[in-house]
Each structure stands twice: as structure tokens, then as C-alpha cells.
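hi support,

uploading two proteins for the ticket. first:
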Amino acid sequence: MLAPAINYWWPGLPSNLTKEAFVQQLPWDQWALSVAHYAPWLVYWWNTQKWFPRVSIIDGESNWSHQDLDIFSKIDEEQSQEAYVVQQGDYESLHRDIIIWCQNWEFDPTDLKNPFPNKEGFVHLWHGDEDCLVPVALQRYIVKKLPWIEYHELQHSGHIFPFDDSMKDVIWKTFLKGENVENGR
């Protein structure tokens, strides 16, 4: 998993930690995520109307880290996956994702059991310590609750670290070899 989103309403997360992480989000994102959680039928309208700011990730105006901005400056049109991200249309690809992300789930991810109790596989979670979209404190908490996750916290990295050419090789080698090769970065 690469910087996976966190649902601020998961019951297994401490409320003081989720509140602290939630207020780190841009104010209009706090509103938009609250709409998605409490009034999901309004998400499409909220993110297409002109009176209030919509969720920043749709506008590309998110709170990006320095590394994210540096990576964006190096990504050319060919590498951009913007068209791929919305290939099923804006509603299915963006608005519905936000609804699913913020709704009550049928399970609590912090209660998941180890899918590899005999160590026949790994679950890797990669996260940048300067990720402004998904607060790293929540990922750290989840990893403490689920010690079977192989956690890779990347120093001085933001949300789009997978687009950093030097990280692509590290991630693929880790997946293919099943070992932690971060230090060879």
C-alpha cells in the first residue's frame, strides 16, 4: 500500500488522534469530508457547485509537501496519470471514492487479523513522513496495532513519493525480493 487514505471515523482509531489529524487538513477539505461522511448524497453537488470550495484533491490544490512539489515539476505529460485516474468518469473515480472513503465500513481495519501467520507473505505499507494529505500519525498508530505490516516510513517524503524515480526501484525490489531495500535508495 502506498500512502493509503485514512477514514477519520474508523472506530479503532483514538478520537484525540483523529481530531488532531483532521484539523491538519485544509479547512475546505474538512467541510467536504464531513459532507461525505454525514450527507453522502450531497458529495457530487458539493464538489461541482461554485459557492463553497470543493475538496482540494479534485482541484489539484491540495496541501503538498516540498518533495511533492519538486516531483510535480519533473513529471511530464507522458508520465502524468491524470487521464487514467478518471477513466471511468469523474463521478465514479472521484466523488464515489470520497463517499466510500468517508463512510462507515463493515469492519474496522485496526481489527484485521494477520493474513500471513506463518510468514508466507507480507503486507507492505509505504508512507512519507511529510505527507500533507494523509497524516502519518494515523498510519503509525495502525502499524502499532497491526505489527504484521511491514512499515516503510520515508524521511522527507510527501504523498506522491512513488513518482520519484529513485523510489520506484526501491519499491519494486522490495515487492519482488520480499526484503527491505530502503537503505539502498
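and the second one:
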Amino acid sequence: MLKKEGIAMILAGGQGTRLKALTENNAKPGVPFGGKYRIIDFALSNCSNSGIDTIGVLTQYQPHVLTTHIGIGTPWDLDRNNGGVSVLPPHMKQDGGYWYMGTADAIYQNIQYVDTFDPEYIIILSGDHIYKMDYAKMVKFHKEEEAAATIAVIDVSIDEASRFGIMNTNEDGTIYEFEEKPEHPKSTNASMGIYVFDWKLLRKYLIDDAKDKNSNHDFGQNIIPKFLSNGLKLMAYPFSGYWKDVGTIDSYWQANMDLLDPNNELNIHDKKWTIYSVNPNKPPQYIGTTAKIKNSLLVEGCTVFGTVKNSILFPGVHIGKNSIIEDSVIMANSKIGDNVIVRKSIIANDVTIRKNSVVGNADEITVVGEYSDVKSNSVVK
């Protein structure tokens, strides 16, 4: 048995249907973001920067991209013999097998994996949020408070509170009630989907929950309410800083645009908290003599001959002559021909937009799915 004080489990099997074409062939945590990352890179990098070297990534929907991207964990310094990163899809057991039925069931099905490291604490994370956080500080808080469970919360506006699970707390931060997307919220402490549990205690509750045929096998709906009803101490861990659930096209687009604000709270240029990823083997970017670029992010392998404003270009993107790209996200290896206008759009990987076409408008976000071929002189809205 490999003894670890704490390990992390990242829930990364979400389908992300509200991201539409972006998740047709990819799980939500595997969606590209910010020019050179995938969404899951933030949770993995947070773990690495927090000194957590043992991580299970629980996959389910369209796992191929995520599995390939994570590999043996080298970019995050997780290619280790004692711990490291492990991809954990649903699997067959002696009594059969089935898909993960909920967040709690996903951990339950991997009890044997967790027990291998005999941890005192387990950190449960969502793999589909954009943020930077030191989990070590949260674990320290959990230990000092001698809590059975600690839940990270972020203050949201009262208008937004109905979209989240809300933790109602006493003045000392203890949680006395959990409300799932309440119509009339009593507080604005929104759950971030980040939990620290005492493993031995959680293990018992997971086993009991698995036997309950009426359970949804979910942390928010079942495990946390059961902790509360049994009088266990639950603490809210307040987080301040940038955090965004990029579960919709609007929030995904906005999170990308936030990176273009030089004063944004996320600050991906922070050398003290690097966001690591798999870097493609691409040549340097080339900016042609006819190019005009303003307030944009361009990475390796881009070739630009047109105008790029307030946009993000992923590796291998080509922008043709006299083309105008504004307020848009252009993903890897997409080719924009000459005399094309792209406004407020998300162009997925390996898209071709041929000459004299117009994509998008200033009123709403247009999405063009992977491998699409937009013919010359087309209008896409």
C-alpha cells in the first residue's frame, strides 16, 4: 500500500450538451480553451501547483481526447511511479459493470483505487471549471477546523444564486443547510463543486449510498444532505478570485474573451502559478506584412495575413489576406481563406472557411463545428 496524506479525484466524464457542437466528439473537460489549453488543464495544474501528486481522472463520455491529452501526466509533473495521474473509466467487476450513475457513484466505483493510497483526505474536483486555486490551503483549513467535509464556496450575486447549489452558513462558516438551485436563495454562497472529505468517513457513506435504490448517487443531492442530517461538521471554505463554469456557449466565449483583458483576475501569465498543458510541435507564428493584430492571443504555428482584433487563435490557424477576425475564438488547424469576415464566433478544430464568406454577427455567438467546410461566398449566422 502506498500511503498518501491526500489524493485528488477529478470528475471529468461530463457530456456538456449546452456546449453544443464543441462536445459532439469530446467531453466537456477536454474542450480547447485560451489558445493552448484544454479546460481540464486548470484542475490538473492546480493539483500540481498545490503539491498533490496523486490524481484519478474519472472519464465517461467521449474519453478518447482526454485520455490522449493526459497521457502519463508529463506536462503536469505527474509521470510518477508512486502516485501520478490515472485515467479511470467505468469498468467491469465481478458482479458486472455499469456507467457512473452520479458523482458519488463515480467515486464509489473507484474505492479500490483510493484505498491503494490509504489517504486521510480526498479532494473531489470538477474537471470543467476555469480557475486557479491552492488546494493545499483548503486541506489545511479542513484539518484546522476538524471538519468531516469542507466545501469551497464563492460569493455570487443574488440574481445568479438560483443557478447554483447554495450553502447556507452560520457566522463561523459552518454549513447548516444546502439548497440545490433554490428559487428564493437565502444566501449567495455558491458551491464550486470542490470538496475535501475525511476518506474513511466518506467511504462508509458511499457504501451506504450505493445500497440505497432511491438515491441519485450524487454529492450535492445525497451525500452532503446525509452528512448534514447526521449532524456532522461541514465547513464552507470561501474563495475569492476568478472562477467560471464554462458550461454554456455564452460562458465559454466570455471566459476566452476575459483572457484579453490585461487586468483579468485569472492571469495566465503568472509565473508563480503556471497553467501547464501539452504543447504542440509547431513552427513559430508568422505575421505577414499585410497583417494587423490588436488585443489578441496567437500561439505557435499561426500564419496571419489579415486583420485579427480581440480574438484568440489556436495552433496552426491560418488567416487569409483581407480577412477580418473580430471577437472570436479560432481553434487548432482551422483555415480562414481570403476576404472572409468572422465576428463573435467560435470556430472549432480543423474547420475550413473558404474565400468571400461571412460567419457570425455582433448580436449572438455563432458556433461552427469540427471539420466543417464552409464553401466560398457563404453566409453563416
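thanks. also noticed: The longest helix spans residues 199-211.
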